[in-house]
Each structure stands twice: as structure tokens, then as C-alpha cells.
Amino acid sequence: MCKPDLMKKMEYESKTLKSWPCEERPREKLLKLGAMSLSDAELLAIFLRTGVKGCNVVDLSRQLLLDFGSLANIFSASESEFCQQHGLGSAKYVQLQACLEMSKRNLAEELAQQGSALTSSQATRNYLVSELRHETREVFAVLFLDNQHQVLTFERLFFGTLNAAAVYPRVVVEQALKHHAAAVILAHNHPSGIAQASVADKQITNKLEQALQLVDIRVLDHMIIAGPQCYSFAEHGELF
Predict the structure, then answer these.
(1) CA angle (56, 57, 58) in 5-degree steps
(2) Which CATH number is 106-232 given?
(3) Residue 9's pLDDT is what?
């Protein structure tokens, strides 16, 4: 059943969606106005498809957003956390993970098509944000590029605690040579949500630039992902 705070809402919200005016139903609203016109609860309702006894799917979605705090928290929830919620289960969890992975692969394809414009493209940010924003510990990753700045591969190389990851320049150089990279874009996340470069971030970037220069590999950027935000070393003039 819905929680009391939702049951107190206007009477029409407790009715089935079939009784709602057409323009207020999430699916019809999306078809008419586009996905951007929908609220988080409406988008989640389309994903869930059905509600539970005594609670329509939109009200269920609103309650889930209250319980988790945000869509991002739902996306990053573990299977056990996800399935503990009323109206959710393993099938929905698997479906959600598949949707998230399709989104990541779509962004990866967009990224691969950017060519020499890669370093100034929003596609790079979008891809790195999608890969790293939900990590609960610090992860250091690298985009390896060829001499035309086409993406060769993306790798997570180092994993740390909530506050730090130990990054070894030798390993980054070894992987760059292994992939025959001519350039790299460094990236790591800040689970704290603060999109700023720390002193330690600047120091490791400097060390990596020096190490990669010895084998004639350029560092095009170092991006820090903090939730939906992205801090670019290149844009702030903090690269050699």
C-alpha cells in the first residue's frame, strides 16, 4: 500500500491511470510532448509499467523517489537495496541494468564517432559521466586514443576508498603502450560530489603527463566526475 503522505494527495491520484485525462498519462504525454516533458516520477512510472494493489504506478514511483532520494540513487542501488522496495524485484532490477547499459553503449558509440573533435565534444563528458557518476568509491580510468584521437578503449585502472585511489604512472604508461595509444584522456570520480581538482589531483596529473611524455603520448585532458558535473583540467588551463 502507499504510505500515508501519498494517500493524502488529491483523490484523482489514487485512481487507476486509465481514469486520468489522456494528457496527464505518462505514456500519452511522452508521445505528444516528448520525454523531456515528463517528471522523474512519470519517467520511472513508464519503466515500472504497473503499480501495486491500492497504489497506481505514478504514486508508486513518487514513493520510490522519496525513499531513495533521487533517480540517481535508484540507478546506483544494489540488487538487495532495489528489491527490498515494495513493487520492485529481480526482474525489474535486471531490466533497469539492461537499460543503463544500453544508454552507456549508445554514448560510447557517439563518442567513437567524434573523431578529431573528441577533446572539445560534449560526448566525451556525457560518456565519462555515465560511466563514473554512480561509483561509490573513487575510480581512476583512462580513455586511450589513436593519433587521430579516435577512441581505442576505455579502462578502469585503479580503485580506492571513498576519498582516494592510488594511481601508478608506470601502469598507465604500460597500458597506453599495450593499446598503441598516441594520446589519453584521464578521468576519475569524486564520490563526495565536489567537482573541483584537489592538490593531490593536480600532483598526479603532473606526474602522469611527465611519464607519458617520455614515450611520446599526450594527455589531452583530465576530467573529474562528481555526479552530473564534470571538471576539465584542459578548460582550466592546468595541463602542460
Answers:
(1) 95
(2) 3.40.140.10
(3) 46
